[in-house]
Design brief:
The structure is a homodimer. The first copy, chain A, is α+β, with helices and mostly antiparallel strands. Helix content of chain A is 38%, strand content 24%. In chain A, a hairpin with a 5-residue loop joins strand 3 and strand 4. The first copy, chain A, starts with a helix and ends in a 23-residue tail after the last helix. Chains A and B meet through strand 4, helix 3 and helix 5 of A and strand 4, helix 3 and helix 5 of B. The structure holds a DNA duplex.
Chain lengths: 234, 234
DNA sequence: CGGTACTTTGAGCATTTTCAACCATTGTGG
DNA sequence: CCACAATGGTTGAAAATGCTCAAAGTACCG
C-alpha cells in the first residue's frame, strides 16, 4: 500500500508546474482559489491582515506541503498565501481535485494533510501564547528543521529560510526589531546563526530545550558585566 | 440534500450519550482516543501543556462541535480535551466512525469540520500574535457569541461561558490577573459584563470594533480622576 | 465553620514595543 | 565603475503593556 506522500505526489502529477516570484500571491484572502498547489521548491506563508496593517503569518509551507486545502470543499481562503523566495510548485484545478476526492484513498490522504495543518496552527497558537521571544524563535527554527529533515530535504543542521525578520516577527507575534535582538543573542550564545536567509544550528540540544520552554533564559544586554559592585547571587 | 450539521447529527445518532463533569478529560494528550464526541450541551477546551506547567488552550468547543477529529485517521491527540462545566455529548467508537467514513457524504462533512477547526486555530494564532489584551478578550467574546448564535443556541446578547479567568488567560496568552483587569475595564466601559460564567454583551458594535482591532483603546486606571464623588454613570 | 476555588487589586518589575537613526547589501541606470 | 534607491538589518533610549508576587475578598460546599 502506498504512503500518503506518494499518493499526494501522484495526484499532482496530473497538475501543471508553476513558478512564483518572491512576494507573489498564490492564494488571495477571502477568494475562492481556482487551484490547489503542491510545493516542490521554496517557502510560502499564509497570512491574515488586520484593518490597521497589522499582519499575522499563521502558517509556513515548505516543499511537500499542500496549499489551498480548503478549496477541496469550495471554502473561501482564510488568508492569503504568498511566496517567500522563489517557489516552484504543481498546480491542480480545484474542480479536478474534487473529482479525485471520490477516490477514498486520495480523500484520506488529504484529510491527513488537514489534520497536520490544524495541528501546526494549534501548536503555533500555543507557542505564541505561552513562550517568550527567544523560546518562540527557537521553536520556529526547530520546527522548520524537523519538518525539512523528515522529508529528507536537508542533511546537516543548516537550511534555507527565506523570510525577513519582519516576517518572522509577524509569524511569532513579535516586532522585527525584537526578532533581530533575539537572533543576535542566539548568535552570541552560539546556539544558532540566522544570516542572509540561511539558518545554521550550532547547539541543537540547547535550541531544543529552549523551544520546549525547558531552559531558563536571560537574554542579558551584553554590557551587564560591570553593572555595579556585587554580582547578584543566583 | 442534507446539510452538514444534519449529516453529522445523524452519524452520531448511533452513538451513546455520555456526561462529563467539569474538569474531566474527554481526550488525553498523546493518546489514541477510543471515541469521537459530538458535544450537545456545555463547553470543552483543548489544551497543550509545557514542561514547566505553562498551559495553552488552543481551541474551545461548544454544542455542535466534534471533538477528537484526528481519531478518524488514528492520529494521536495533539492535546487534552477537558470539560469546562458539565458536558453532555454523544460518543462514537473510533472504529465505527472509520467505517462510516466510507460514505462519501459523511467523509466530506467531517472534512468540512476539520477545515473549520483549522481556521479557528489559525485565527486564534493571529489574534494572540497581533492584538493586545482588550482586543483579544473582545475577539474571544465575539467569536463565541457568533458561533453560538449561528447554531441558534442563544437569542439575545448573553450566553454562558464556563471558564475561569485563568483558563481565559491560557486561551488568549495572558495571565489570569490581567484577564481580570481587562474584564473590569470592559465592565466599567459598559462594553460587556463577564461575571460568574455568564457573558452579557452591552455594546455590540464597540465590542466588534475592538475585536477587529479597529478601535484605539486606552485601558486607563479608573482613579486618574477623583476617586469617589462622581458616581459612575451607568 | 472551615475549606477550596476563584476573583480582585496593588506595587514593582520585566519584556517587548516604539521610534528613530544609522548601516549594509544589492541591483539599476548613467 | 559609481551614485543612488530600495530593501532589510542593527541598535539605543524611552515608553508601554502585561507579568509577578502577594494579600485580601467572595462564594460556594459539605
Amino acid at each position: 500500500m502506498r504512503g500518503r506522500t506518494e499518493i499526494i505526489a501522484s495526484v499532482f502529477r496530473r497538475g501543471v508546474t508553476g513558478y512564483f516570484q518572491s512576494g507573489e500571491t498564490l492564494i488571495e484572502e477571502g477568494k475562492l482559489s481556482r487551484h490547489v498547489y503542491l510545493l516542490r521548491i521554496g517557502l510560502a506563508y499564509q497570512s491574515f491582515r488586520f484593518p490597521d496593517r497589522r499582519r499575522a503569518i499563521v502558517d509556513i509551507f515548505s516543499s511537500g506541503n499542500v496549499v489551498g486545502l480548503e478549496t477541496i470543499l469550495s471554502v473561501r481562503a482564510s488568508g492569503s498565501v504568498t511566496a517567500a523566495g522563489l517557489v516552484k510548485c504543481l498546480g491542480l484545478e480545484a474542480s479536478s481535485l474534487r473529482q479525485l476526492m471520490e477516490d477514498r484513498e486520495i480523500a484520506l490522504s488529504f484529510t491527513s494533510l488537514l489534520i497536520e495543518a490544524r495541528r501546526r496552527s494549534e501548536e503555533l497558537a500555543a507557542r505564541i501564547a505561552r513562550l517568550d521571544a527567544p523560546e518562540r524563535v527557537a521553536a520556529m527554527l526547530i520546527d522548520l528543521y524537523d519538518r525539512l529533515r523528515r522529508r529528507r530535504l536537508i542533511a546537516r543542521s543548516s537550511y534555507n529560510l527565506h523570510l525577513t525578520q519582519q516576517q518572522i516577527g509577524d509569524h511569532l507575534g513579535l516586532t522585527g526589531a525584537h526578532v533581530n535582538r533575539v537572533l543576535r543573542w542566539l548568535s552570541r550564545e552560539d546556539i544558532a546563526l540566522v544570516k542572509g536567509y540561511v539558518v545554521i544550528i550550532r547547539d541543537m540540544p540547547r535550541l531544543r530545550r529552549l523551544a520546549r520552554g525547558e531552559d531558563v533564559i536571560e537574554m542579558q544586554r551584553t554590557k551587564v558585566t560591570s553593572d555595579r559592585s556585587l554580582a547578584p547571587i543566583a
